[in-house]
């Protein structure tokens, strides 16, 4: 259920390569992918942030502990709830440069469509989906 070390390195690279400033992580699980993307944001300065969505309270608690231990708390914002519902509530005035979808596989099409319909992706942004 968690991305591999190779996938994590690729996410760090993608964030750096596309010069992302705002990242949306759909599916936090243990926080590894969010930490990898936060590593890519480290040099971006003020305003750089990963917003990560998780439905399971226990997973989110574990992820927060892992993120804090890794030293990325200042770059990651956690939102608890169903991704479909949270996507409808996100502020679209500041779109995301990279969106990583790694959550409920049956929800991928809905997440994708909501991201595009609500203009949550910046003009030069990219969407990456796991599996």
Structure, explained:
With 131 residues, this protein is of the alpha/beta class. Helices cover 41% and strands 24% of the residues. The chain contains five helices and five strands. It has a five-stranded parallel β-sheet with strand order 3-2-1-4-5, sandwiched between helices. Helix 1 (5-17) packs parallel to helix 2 and helix 4 (83-89) runs parallel beside helix 5 (108-117). The longest helix has 14 residues, at 57-70. It is globular and about 35 Å long. It starts with a helix and ends with a strand. It comes from Acaulospora colombiana. This is 3678_t:CDS:1.
Largest sheet: 5 strands, parallel
Return the average pLDDT rounded to an integer.
94
DSSP strand tally: 5
Task: Name the poorly predicted regions.
Answer: none
| Shape by Cα distribution | globular
In whole angstroms, the N-to-C terminal distance is: 10 Å
Helix content: 40-55%
**CA radius of gyration:** 13 Å
Number of helices: 5
Strand order of the largest sheet: 3-2-1-4-5
Structural class, from secondary structure content? Answer: alpha/beta
Q: Which series of helices and strands comes N to C?
A: HEHEHEHEHE
Percent range for β-strand residues: 15-25%
Protein name: 3678_t:CDS:1
